[in-house]
Design brief:
Elements: E1 8-9, H1 14-19, H2 29-45, E2 53-58, H3 65-77, E3 83-88, H4 96-100, H5 108-114, E4 123-124, E5 130-133, H6 142-146, H7 149-161, E6 165-170, H8 179-184, E7 189-193, H9 201-212
Parallel strand pairs: 1-4, 2-6, 2-7, 3-5, 3-6
Helix pairs in contact: 2-3
C-alpha cells in the first residue's frame, strides 16, 4: 500500500465521478467486469507488472481514451498488493483533473517549467492505492518537454521506484499530433482506444502504422 507521507490527499465527490463515467463502488457490475477483463489482459501481457509502464492513446480526440485510462488505473488499484500511478501526459489539452475534480492543482508542466518538486504535485483523490500526477496548466510547446532527456529520465524513475506499481499515462491522440509518437518510445506498452461507429478503419491503420515505425 502506498504511504501518503508527502502526497496530498483530496476528497472526491462520488456523484461527480459517476457523472463523468468514472468507476466508483456503486458502478454497474457489468462495467466493472469490462475493466477487470482489460486489467487481466494487460497483466497477462506485461508479465504481471514486469513491464509496468503503459500509455493510452487514440486516433483523434473524443474517443474515450481518458476515461479508459482513469478507469483502468482504478481497476488495477482495486487489487490487493497492487498500486497505480496515473499520469496526465496530454499537456496541450489535459482532462484528468477535470474528470476527477482536481482542477487547479499543480502538475507536470509546473514541475518542468517552474521546477516544482515532483512529490509536491502528486495527489491522491481519496481512491485507495491510486496516485495521480496531473498535467497542470495547459502548454502549447509540449513536444519539446516530451522529447527532452529530463522527461525520459522521469519515466524511468517512475517505472522503477515501486516494483508493485503500474504507471498509466493518458497521452494525446496520434493523428496530427507528434506528442504521443515521441512518448511511445519511453513505455513498455500502448493501449489504443477507438470509438465504434466513429473511428474509421483507415484512420486506425494509419495511427497504428505511425506507432509501429
Amino acid at each position: 500500500t502506498i504511504i501518503y507521507s508527502k502526497t496530498k490527499i483530496l476528497p472526491n465527490d462520488a456523484l461527480y465521478l459517476e457523472k463523468n463515467r468514472i468507476l466508483t463502488s456503486s458502478a454497474h457490475p457489468r462495467v466493472k467486469d469490462y475493466y477487470s477483463l482489460l486489467r487481466t489482459q494487460i497483466q497477462q501481457r506485461t508479465d504481471h507488472g514486469r513491464k509496468n509502464t503503459i500509455m493510452v492513446t487514440s486516433t483523434e480526440s473524443n474517443e474515450g481514451k481518458t476515461t479508459t485510462a482513469i478507469n483502468l488505473a482504478i481497476s488495477i488499484a482495486s487489487q490487493v498488493h497492487q498500486t497505480t500511478l496515473l499520469v496526465d501526459m496530454d499537456l496541450r489539452d489535459p482532462d484528468i483533473s477535470y474528470y476527477l475534480g482536481l482542477e487547479g492543482h499543480l502538475g507536470l508542466t509546473d514541475h518542468f517549467v517552474d521546477e516544482i518538486p515532483l512529490e509536491n504535485v502528486l495527489v491522491n483523490p481519496s481512491i485507495k492505492n491510486l496516485v495521480v500526477l496531473p498535467a497542470g496548466k495547459a502548454l502549447s510547446g509540449s513536444t519539446e518537454i516530451l522529447s527532452s532527456p529530463k522527461m525520459e529520465q522521469m519515466v524511468k524513475e517512475l517505472k522503477h521506484r515501486y516494483p508493485d506499481r503500474y504507471v498509466i499515462f493518458d497521452c494525446p491522440y496520434i493523428l496530427n499530433n507528434p506528442d504521443a509518437l515521441v512518448f511511445s518510445s519511453y513505455v513498455d506498452g500502448v493501449i489504443f482506444v477507438v470509438q465504434p461507429g466513429k473511428t474509421t478503419k483507415d484512420k486506425i491503420q494509419k495511427a497504428l502504422s505511425l506507432i509501429d515505425e
